Amino acid sequence: MRQSFFDEEILDRQFIQLEKLEDRENPNFVEEVLTLYFRDSTTLLATIEREMENVPIDFPKVDRILHQLKGSSASIGANKVRNEITKTRELWQQGNREGAKATFQEARKEHDTLKAKLEPYFQQLRQAGPAETAMRPR
Amino acid sequence: MNSSSGKGSMSTASSSAAWKTGDVVPDKFPAGLRVLVVDDDPTCLMILEKMLRTCLYEVTKCNRAETALCMLRENKNGFDIVISDVHMPDMDGFKLLEHIGLEMDLPVIMMSADDGKHVVMKGVTHGACDYLIKPVRIEALKNIWQHVVRKRRNEWKDFEQSGSVEEGDRQQKQSEDADYSSSANEGNWKSSKKRKDDEDETDERDDTSSLKKPRVVWSVELHQQFVTAVNQLGIDKAVPKKILELMNVPGLTRENVASHLQKYRLYLRRLSGVSQHQGNLNNPFISSQETTFGPLSSLNGLDLQTLAATGQLPAQSLATLQAAGLGRSTAKSGVPLPLVDQRNIFSFENPKLRFGEGQQQHMNNNKQINLLHGIPTTMEPKQLASLHHTAQSIGNINMQVTSHGAQSGQNSSLLMQMAQPQARGPTLDSTVGHAPRLPSSMGQPILSNGIAANVSTRNGIPENIRAPGYNPVSQTSSMLNFPMNHTSELPGNSFPLGSTPGISSLTSRRAFQEEVNSEIKVPSGFMPSYAIFNDLNQHKPQNWELENVGMTFDASQHSNSLQGNLDLTQSVLVQQGFSSRQVNGQSRSAAVVSKAVFSAADGTEHVIAQNVNQHLDSLLVDNTIRVKSERVADASAANLFPDHFGQEDLMSALLKQQEGIAPAENEFAFDGYSMDNIPG
Any idea which residues bear Phosphohistidine here (chain A) (predicted)? Predict the structure, then answer.
């Protein structure tokens, strides 16, 4: 399952970096980070969606949030999410509201897909236990 | 970081070398490195913390810039390095960077998902020691300790350098610095500080002074090399690393170059704002003077003219400079105009003076001021000597000088005044720009800035130089910014620059010692003159130019003892033959100061007050203001403050001053200048 993430390019090497950070003291580090990420990203995505429809539109605000999302997605290795967010931001900066909105929907989709896929993955890890974790390919 | 107290004390240096947080055993380094990481994104923060922990660093995380600053302030020696995100909701990352650089002088690494060239460049110009692109990998974090080491080495080195260069000066400076920092200095400084309207400056100065660290002294020669390297690479492509390679100066670090470059760029920016000849400025600058103060060139342009006239400056540079200067003056906040006029007037006569002065001054400012002064200061001491001869012209020059710095006309007036008496001698202080007034002997109160700037320079410079009116120049040190403020305050005392920390000594000098025995070591004094300009220009960048001009004179005069960091040693011997005439009768001390021959030799702000006819008196007063502008220009040029203000500090200080100064400056019109303050 894990490998499929990389094959599908949903996750990139940054994710592996996170995995490397796990150790005895933080056995569930990756899961913790991802949980933190999703908590934040879900809120941000909702905010962006709302702001994009707002009148009058606060362009800089949306741009800032997009930038932040881009950073955090990149930090966890959420490859596709990051790409879509980057595209959204570019369009937004160009003033292409419609284009940005459409791309944003893509980003959102990728985000939800990732979340949906990771959940069972972590569950599997937890079930496997520490031994399995240790054996997990790094 | 312990390095912050670089004040020359060897002990500090050694402790810096140890840098240890105290708890970590040296062997274990870099383990235990105390890192403060600031990022509003919780995900990134968590990841970074974990990564840093894995590197065996001691991590403190923080999600708000304000909180981070508080933490740093409460525990100045509690951290070794800071990593900060660029985009944060409560404060811009670059602003935080500046604060840290100014107050604590810790190495700061910027971080962002944004990898655009402009953003990264901004990081460089604001003094970040590195820039990481998100997502950050642990490999990138493993090596951050190098920045800590490098910084410490620089400080240590600066410390050593300065110490060896001028033992005496250093000590003086240090003590002066200490004084400054403790703000208890001889009162001159303090008073000048008080006088300063600019609270900011004071604060900054205090901060910087407390931070005193040994800094690289950007001597004229060094600056020259720097500018040469930059020009060789092309201003756009000039990156610290390459510049460093080209310069090939042992012991110089990339950091030094980077911060100097930052200042230089600001200077250039200011110049360009003023004159179109920016590019030219640099060249003439270099050519004309050793002080490659490029940026100053713009200011100097004005002076250059005179200088050129005197044969000192290459004609072309003069033209450029002048154009620049002129352009600038007008461009600048408008205030410059008055100066400009003045300058033109004088430009011929004192060209030499200016340069000489400028040079000297520059040197002191080490980086910053040099730029400013560059123009005038490039005049090497010998030039100054010649300037003396041109004493007459000096008056003018001074005027110019002042005009430059003082953009605000005021200075000019001061200068002018000063110039009068001494028309001869390199009234270097002519920075006073008020040239019109003092046509001749403007010893130029080298912008009191110098004086103020000299704050540090003074180290012992008995010279009268700087006597209060003098401030101009040398003080370019961070104090410069004050000049503006100060000058207004110190009417009589050319020192108004008083703000320039170093200047305080100068101010006291006011007594004009006309013959400037002043060794005015205007350490950064140079800047002060700028400050004056600053006021005028308000535009920081611009002021710089103008100011520089003024400053250079002053600075040079003050022998920039200010150097603090400045390499006043540039032998700014501003030999202002001032006969300390008090140009308006008041600022005489200022005038004298101008004489402060900035014997900035080695950056030690020894301003050899040789004949500095510092008409500084009047000039000084104005200059002080000007000095400020210069300061800003150098901003970081640790100018004035002997403390080694980071250039960034100075820059900001200067910039601040500039802003504040501009309005005030105008009041300085020397004539009406109540030089009373000048303790003549």
Answer: 67
The 10s digit of each residue's pLDDT in B169-198 is 444 444 444 444 444 444 444 444 444 444
Same domain? For B224 and B150 the reply is no
**Contact status, residue B372 vs residue B549, Cβ threshold 8 Å:** yes
Q: Closest by alpha carbon to B231, among B261, B266, B191, B200?
A: B261
> Looking at the complex, does the CB of residue B136 fall below 8 Å from at least one CB of chain A?
yes
β partners of residue B547? none
Cα B323 from Cα B345, distance rounded (Å) = 14
- What pLDDT score does B424 carry? 42
- Other Cβ atoms closer than 10 A to A27: 16
Residues from chain A that touch B46, judged by Cβ atoms under 8 A, are 32-33, 36
Q: What is the mean pLDDT of residues B22-37?
A: 73
Residue B408 maps to a domain: no
* Residue B279's pLDDT band (cuts 50, 70, 90): very low
Same-domain check for residues B35 and B151: yes
CATH assignment of the domain containing A73: 1.20.120.160
Q: Is residue A72 part of a domain?
A: yes
pLDDT band at B57 (very low <50, low <70, confident <90, very high): very high
Residue B674 in any domain: the answer is: no
Region of poorest pLDDT, from A108-112, B91-95, B637-641:
B637-641
pLDDT of residue B658: 46
Q: Is residue A34 part of a domain?
A: yes
Shortest CA distance to B606 belongs to which of B151, B96, B169, B113? B169
Residue B115 forms contact with A (CB below 8 Å): no
Assign residue B147 the CATH number of its domain.
Answer: 3.40.50.2300
Judging contacts by C-beta atoms under 8 Å, the chain A residues touching residue B115 are none
Say whether both B151 and B236 belong to one domain.
no
How does B193-204 read in b/e, with b if 16+ C-beta sit within 10 Å? Answer: bbbbbbebbbeb
**CB pair distance less than 8 Å for A33 and B46:** yes
Instruction: Give the count of domains, chain B.
Output: 2
Out of B158, B173, B207, a domain closes at B158
In a shared domain, residues B39 and B154: yes
Chain A positions touching B51 (Cβ under 8 A) are 17, 21
- Comparing CB atoms, the residue among A21, A64, A72 nearest residue B43 is A72
Instruction: For residue B260, give the CATH number of its domain.
Output: 1.10.10.60
Asked whether the beta carbons of B333 and B625 are under 8 A apart, the reply is: no
Identify the H or E element spanning B38: strand B34-38
Residue A52: which domain range? 1-17+27-123
What pLDDT score was predicted for residue B422? 40
- Tell me what pLDDT residue B399 has: 42
Q: How far is CA B100 from the centre of its chain?
A: 19
Structure tokens of B12? 């500090």
Residue B208 has pLDDT above 70, yes or no: no
Interchain contact, B46 vs A40, CB within 8 Å:
no
**What is the distance between the alpha carbons of residues B106 and B123, in angstroms, rounded to a whole number?**
15
- Domain assignment present for B133: yes
Q: What is the pTM for the complete model shown? A: 0.41
Query: What number of CA atoms fall less than 13 Å from residue B186's CA on the CB side?
Result: 24
Q: What is the DSSP letter of B104?
A: I
What is the domain extent for residue B118? Answer: 30-158
Contact B135 A17 (CB under 8 A): yes
From B573, B612, B552, select the one nearest B421 (Cα to Cα).
B612
Q: Which of B272, B287, B306 is the last residue in one of the domains?
A: B272
Burial B75-90 (b: 16+ CB within 10 A, else e): ebbbbbbbbbbbbbee
Instruction: Please tell me the predicted confidence (pLDDT) of residue B344.
Output: 42
Q: Is residue B402 part of a domain?
A: no
Q: Which residues of chain A neighbour B134 with C-beta distances below 8 Å?
A: 71, 74-75
The structural domain count of chain A equals 1
Residue A134 lies in a domain: no
